[in-house]
Amino acid sequence: MPELPEVEALTDLLTEHLVGLRVARVLPAAVSVLKTYDPPVTAFEGVRVTGVRRHGKFLDLAADSGLHLVIHLARAGWLQWRDRLPDGQPKPGKGPLALRVALETGEGFDLTEAGTQKRLAVYVVRDPAQVPGIARLGPDPLAADFDEARLAALLKDERRRLKGALRDQSLIAGVGNAYSDEILHAAKMSPFKLAASLTPEETHHLYEALRGTLTDAVERSRGVAAGRLKSEKKSGLRVHGRIGEPCPVCGDTIREVSFSDSSLQYCPTCQTGGKPLADRRLSRLLK
């Protein structure tokens, strides 16, 4: 799933390629991708793009007409920039293509989505706050005013475990499954630790890990072509997706806890005092 650093890189890419140019066509190839109908998606045709912003994991293309084309790539979506788009109307239901945005120059981008669970979402709105996912976003962890005191206030009464709290977009915007694993590894904290139980010193370590991990990932992604962002993300991960590999810090074996629709990876030595966490899915099988 694209998270804050990758979406930030896509924001930079689209700012470079789109701002100041006019949109010729917006061509849906999958009806499921459109989440709003008034204004219609065709209302974004003929407009000039004036800016591109990121809201958490959402991309926001602003136009001189006052409209916004908002994109959420969900779990399996991606954006592919093309210096020259194919001619003609894309065929609905053929392949992973979900929506195409064509510029008057012949350039543009495709939104694609792998797999059968179609969650990629596109909205045409007059105000980004009309998108429910944006309206409920928590603060951006890389914003200038997101300081240690802000994080402490967010976690003070949070009764969930750290892993779940970090992934909650209404608490902190932009962090997903992969970077929450990376942040907790950098902070040397168990993903199952209760968020409200953190001491001031632990909150400091978590804040430094949160800002440092995301800032480093953004810098690695900056200037990387859209087609290489996924591999760049994977190459920079130290524990997420690396079950069975040695921890780059201590050499212990990276382990996993699986859930119904996701999993987390962690280092027992660095994060849980050497004790493996119970894998809930395996525990059920053994009963």
Characterization of the model:
The two termini are 33 Å apart. 30% of the residues lie in helices and 20% in strands. Strand 9 and strand 10 (263-266) form a beta hairpin. It is elongated, with a radius of gyration of 20 Å. With 287 residues, the chain is of the alpha+beta class. Residues 282-287 have low confidence and may be disordered. The strands form 3 sheets. A 4-stranded antiparallel beta sheet has the order 1-6-7-5, with no helix packed on it. It has a 4-stranded antiparallel beta sheet with strand order 2-3-4-8, covered by helices on one side. A two-stranded antiparallel sheet has the order 9-10. Helix 1 packs parallel to helix 6 (200-221) and helix 5 crosses helix 6.
Protein topology:
Blueprint: H1 4-18, E1 23-28, E2 49-55, E3 58-63, E4 68-72, E5 77-82, E6 97-103, E7 108-113, E8 121-125, H2 132-135, H3 148-155, H4 162-167, H5 177-187, H6 200-221, H7 229-236, E9 255-258, E10 263-266, H8 268-271, H9 280-286
Antiparallel strand pairs: 1-6, 2-3, 3-4, 4-8, 5-7, 6-7, 9-10
Helix pairs in contact: 1-6, 5-6
What labels would you give this structure?
single chain, 287 residues, alpha+beta, four-stranded antiparallel sheet, 30% helix, 20% strand, elongated, disordered C terminus
Radius of gyration: 20 Å
First and last CA, distance: 33 Å
Taking pLDDT < 50 over at least 5 consecutive residues as the criterion, the unreliable ranges are 282-287
Number of strands: 10
Portion in helices: 25-40%
Can you tell me the overall shape? elongated
Average pLDDT for all residues: 93
Strand-pairing-aware structural class: alpha+beta
Number of helices: 9
Reading the helices and strands in chain order gives: HEEEEEEEEHHHHHHEEHH
